[in-house]
Amino acid sequence: MEISFVKVSPTQNVTILVTSAVAREAQGAVAARLLEWDSVCGEQVGFLEAPSLPGARARLQMMGGEFCGNATMSLGAYLARQEGLADGGCAEYRIEVSGADAPVACRIARVGGAYRGTVWMPLPESIGTAALETDAGAVELPLVELPGISHVVAPVSLGRAEIERRIRGWNGVIGAEALGVLRFDEDAQTIEPIVYVPSTDSAVWERGCGSGTAALGCWLAHRKGRSYRATVRQPGGEIDVSVSVQNGQISGVEIAGTVRITALGTAFV
Length: 269
Fold this sequence. Notes:
Strand content: over 45%
Largest sheet: 8 strands, mixed, barrel
Radius of gyration: 18 Å
Distance between the termini: 5 Å
Mean pLDDT: 96
Structural class: alpha+beta
């Protein structure tokens, strides 16, 4: 099978967007092959489909049916490139994304050879805690449930190897469509994100995580009881998050980051 793709780097969270039509039942297997080292290689795969919701410019179906802010930003950059957005120009799109009930707004600005993307994220469904087993015993960790993906905020004292070993079991407790775990250093304002997608049984340490950055911002705004804005450093660079709070409730969440389109081509799977 020949697959047309575009490879995009939003904060180095390398995303493969499949522009060929691929049936839903085949998407998991196609994504698994594309992610391999001897194929296109990346951290996640999304499939472009015809939109079905009013006002949506395009539809993005992620490989496990999850929601992804960085992939949304990536598709926005690809659309801007296809439409010939000039350096210094700006365009706005409403994108239908798996895991989100309504089209997601995405603004793209062309900055030289790169793009600056801003995504207005879906609001969290809940902010609470989860009781999870660790090597040191059961602990209560913050849990932010977003449409299509949930994130646990973990201390840096929890090692990468333990998180990777336990993330599938933790999702057995939480039951998320996709589960992220963020190793968060509050003093340094850094995260190390890993995302587990049950439908493809993939657990990937990501260079950057848009939904994780949004979830972290929501948890910190909730904890502080006020609007919150920060630049969160991660292995691939920085993602900005802004969370608005009105009358004690989160009323808006947006993330912003840099997107680079690195390749277009044909893969054989």
